[in-house]
Amino acid sequence: DMKVTQMPRYLIKRMGENVLLECGQDMSHETMYWYRQDPGLGLQLIYISYDVDSNSEGDIPKGYRVSRKKREHFSLILDSAKTNQTSVYFCASSLQGASAETLYFGSGTRLTVL
Amino acid sequence: QQKVQQSPESLIVPEGGMASLNCTSSDRNVDYFWWYRQHSGKSPKMLMSIFSNGEKEEGRFTVHLNKASLHTSLHIRDSQPSDSALYLCAAPSSGSWQLIFGSGTQLTVMP
Questions:
Q1: How much of chain A exceeds pLDDT 90, in percent?
Q2: Interchain proximity B44–A90, CB inside 8 Å
Q3: Using a CB-CB distance cutoff of 8 angstroms, which residues of chain A are in contact with residue B92?
Q4: Per-residue pLDDT at A5 exceeds 90
Q5: Chain B partners of A90 at a C-beta cutoff of 8 Å?
Q6: Is residue A55 a contact partner of residue A49, using CB atoms and an 8 Å limit?
Q7: Cβ pair B47, B37 in contact under 8 A
Q8: Does B88 contact A at CB distance below 8 Å?
Q9: What phi and psi values does residue B82 have, to the nearest 5 degrees?
């Protein structure tokens, strides 16, 4: 069963704290993504990773960094979280990263920064 | 910056009715679209894609594509309450391989 797994599902942090969101996939997909979703704004791409240690900025990378040390695992890190980073974060994966491929999404992490 | 615009923002249809959702890209190089469906509190899941001009039907769902007008539409016939969801349209980004998502149409099917 093809799956993208995100942890945790819900997270509450105080402003200035560090945040680690984790994502795993069991499909041997080369490409993984981090998106955030806010009401009325759709899905916005934060970072994309084409393979281990091959990461590129998306449309809104400011305030975020990523780490991919294994093909099946992709982390999103918020150093010193801000209140405007309160959002729902989705991890996704695709076979090779072409826009003509299906994206498979994880179940999301709802992050609240107080 | 390329935009993908969806209309309407929200739509209410009765059970058994037809729902019609629209999507347009601002990029003249776009020649295919994706539709994803997201139920409340869940993750987006791919619903349909269309790469050729014309129409594609899968069960109660039909997608149209007009490449000349950069427009796609999704039609759901015999709508069911389980079709109530956020429908996201996506198109490839100019100059890259990535998808640009619209802000979605929130569909509610009333029993």
A1: 85
A2: yes
A3: 99-100
A4: yes
A5: 43-44
A6: yes
A7: yes
A8: yes
A9: -70, -10
Q: Between B86 and B1, name the one with better pLDDT.
A: B86
Put simply, the answer to whether A43 touches B98 (Cβ < 8 Å) is no
pLDDT of residue B97: 67
Residue A88, burial from CB neighbour count under 10 angstroms (0-12, 13-18, 19+)? middle
Distance from CA of A79 to the nearest CA of B (A): 25
Angstrom distance (rounded) from CA B79 to CA B17: 5
What are the tens digits of pLDDT across the range A58-91?
999 999 999 999 999 999 999 999 999 999 999 9
Q: Do A99 and B36 touch (CB under 8 A)?
A: no
CB contact under 8 A, B103 and A99: no
Other beta carbons within 10 Å of A104: 22
Enumerate the residues of chain A whose CB falls inside 8 A of the CB of residue B99: 99, 103
Cβ–Cβ gap A105/B43 under 8 Å: yes
Q: Per-residue pLDDT for B107 more than 90?
A: yes
Q: Where residue B5 falls among pLDDT bands split at 50, 70, 90?
A: very high
- Residue B93 DSSP code: P
Q: Please, what's the largest Cα pairwise distance for chain A?
A: 39
Q: In this structure, which amino acid lies at residue A27?
A: M
Stronger pLDDT, A15 or B28, i.e. the higher one = A15
